[in-house]
Amino acid sequence: MIFPGGEGERKLLKEVLAGALLLLCLLSVGAGIRNALRFSQDFQYDAARALLLGMDPYEISQTPPFRPDVGADEKLDSFYGYFSSIDAPQKMEANQFPSLLMELFPLALMPFRLSVSLWLLCNLVFTALILFFLRKTFLNGISREMFSFLSLLMIAGTPWRNQLGVGQHTLFSFCFFLAAVWCSERGKQWGAGVLLAFSMFKYTLTLPLALYFVFRRRFKELAITAVIHLTATFAAMRLTGRPFFYLLIEPLRVSMALSGEGSLDIGSIIGGGALSVALTFLLLLILLILSVRMTRKDGAERLLFTLLLLCSLVMTYHRSYDFFVMTAAYSGIAELEEKSRSVKMGKPGKVFGVTPSMLYFILLAVLFFGLRLFSESPGIMIFSAVLYYGFLIYYTINALLRNSGKAEAGNG
Length: 412
Known about the structure:
The protein is mainly alpha-helical. The protein has 21 helices and no strands. The relative contact order is 0.09. Residues 341-346 and 408-412 have low confidence and may be disordered.
C-alpha cells in the first residue's frame, strides 16, 4: 500500500487506519450478530422444512397466502408466527433447486430459533474459512499487510454485516467454492467435486465462478458436482411426487419474480424479465468461451477469476449484501500491476492518472460504505452502477490484453 509523506508519517497513518478499521470490524461483527439473532429472514428455513416434509415448496411459493396451512407443521407455524410477532411477516420464496434445499435439511430438522443460532455460528466460521482459503489460493501472492487490510475491510463493510444479519447463503457458498479450489489444486478431485456441489447453493455467484474449473481443465470435479445434484433431484422426485423437469423449472419461475429487484445487476437496470435472462445466458456463454480460449500462462487463473467474479455480481440477481466477495477480486488487480512491472509488458492503462488498484479501492469504498452512508438512494445506486460497469469494462480490456500479450511494450 502506498501512503504519502515520510516513513514516520506513513507508519503513523497505517496504524491509525488499521486501528479505525479494527474498531469498525468489532462494531460490524456486533451489529451483524445482533441482527442475525433477530432476523435471518433469508435463511430459507421454511422452504427446506417444507421439502423435508414432502411438501411442494415451489407451489406454495406461487400460491396465496404463500405459506403452508396453519397446523400443517408445528415448526413452520413457529417460523411464521415469530416473524409476524416482530412485524416482519414472511412468505415462502423457494428460489433454490431441491438438491440445494436439501443442503439445509440438518438445520430444517431443528426448531427455527435454534437453527438460526447455529446458522449464525456457521456463517462466522465460514467467514474465517473464506479468509483462510483466499490466503491459500487467489490471494497467496500479496503481502501480509495488504491481505490484513483487505480482510479488515471486508468485515468492516456493510455487505458482510448485512449478509450475516439477514442470514444469507453467500458466505456458505463462497467458502465451499474456495475450499473446492484448494482441494482441486492438491489433486483431491473427489473432495473438490463434493465441495463444489455444496457451493452451488448460491449458484448465481458460484456457477459463473465454476468456469474457473473449465479453464483449469478440471472436468472431473464438475462431473462429480453434476452427478450429486442430479441424484439429489431424483431423490426429491420420490419425496414430493413431482416430475423431474418440474423440479428444475419451478425454482426458476420463483426466481424470475425477483429478477428486477437486485442492486446493480443487469436485471435491476432493465427491469428483469426475459431480456435480462437472455443477456445473462449470453454473458455466461462469452465467459465460457473465454475460459476455454484464454492462454494458460502464469497468472492467467487470477486474471480470469477476478473477471468471473466481477461479472457474476451483475449478470444475475444480487443485492448489495453479496458484494463482500469483492475483496477476492484484488487477485486479478494485483496480477495486472505485477505484470506492469515487467520490462516486457506495458503498464495497464490509467484513468485520469489513477492506477487499477486505486480504482478498485475507490469502488470498494463506495460499495462497502457509500451505499450505506447514502441509504442506497437512487443517486448513489446510479453512481455505483456507472462506477462498477466502467471498472468492469476497464478491467476486462486490460486483463485480456495482458493474457494475449498484445499489451507488450518496450521489449526491443
